[in-house]
Amino acid sequence: xxxxxxxxxxxxxxxxxxxxxxxxxxxxxxxxxxxxxxxxxxxxxxxxxxxxxxxxxxxxxxxxxxxxxxxxxxxxxxxxxxxxxxxxxxxxxxxxxxxxxxxxxxxxxxxxxxxxxxxxxxxxxxxxxxxxxxxxxxxxxxxxxxxxxxxxxxxxxxxxxxxxxxxxxxxxxxxxxxxxxxxxxxxxxxxxxxxxxxxxxxxxxxxxxxxxxxxxxxxxxxxxxxxxxxxxxxxxxxxxxxxxxxxxxxxxxxxxxxxxxxxxxxxxxxxxxxxxxxxxxxxxxxxxxxxxxxxxxxxxxxxxxxxxxxxxxxxxxxxxxxxxxxxxxxxxxxxxxxxxxxxxxxxxx
Length: 349
Fold this sequence. Notes:
The chain is about 50% helix and about 10% strand. By secondary structure, the protein is α+β, with helices and mostly antiparallel strands. Helix 8 (about 190-195) links the parallel strand 5 (about 175-180) and strand 6 (about 200).
């Protein structure tokens, strides 16, 4: 009988990172007059494959290549800035923000301290309404070593700060969008993996945008955790966190703001830029489920309509998504212990 692979055998890691990024790191070696041979060998990237325009590498290969290059060249910016960022610079930035009371303060410190190390770019935390953004202003010509070097620098910095922010609060930070000030590259499809959410090219500046409520979350890391993280810090830029500490709030908001689009798991997941499977799993990890949250949102909306309007109960039922008054009244009694009519008359607080 022909042999079959064991069901428990893990699939090989997907090669999704553009080889163009590896070529930028090799160019950094040339800039400093060093050979990339050892780094490429450790990352298992052959010279011939390195030159293939459309080739991809795995996250692990990217981690090994970039980590080796940063240490061998003693430059965590890999030649992108006017002066080197010696090995350990980003660890120092992480430590300087570790005592912050919440993520917002930590990110402001990180951006401010980054300017002390490299004045080629200015990073800012900008809050507009319920949305926050990390923006990059280019102060020098990042493309002086080629457009690929500029692209890699902007991607690297945004991935670094996004990953660190997730680590600080031990939570996935869902992106509302990412923008880049250059034309879509040939490997533009890889951006959906690096920055899940709407992507825009040819923008005024590089930025990532996310829900501002993340900024109020407390940091959940200490010095011991930092030491452990710094032993393998680079995966912060390539791995996604499973847990999202704002997910329950975001689901409630989606259900309330977009009832027509959020009538099922697929609709809610689409609004949050995640899969329905991920939605269910993460809600379970938070001790919640979608039906429970739908009932809570419906209940709050129903109470508001009963208290603040004179709409007939039948219209209130339709407004909160019930097909008929009977099923609404039954559900409302389950939620509140009273019928809609009794609630409206003030028999229930």
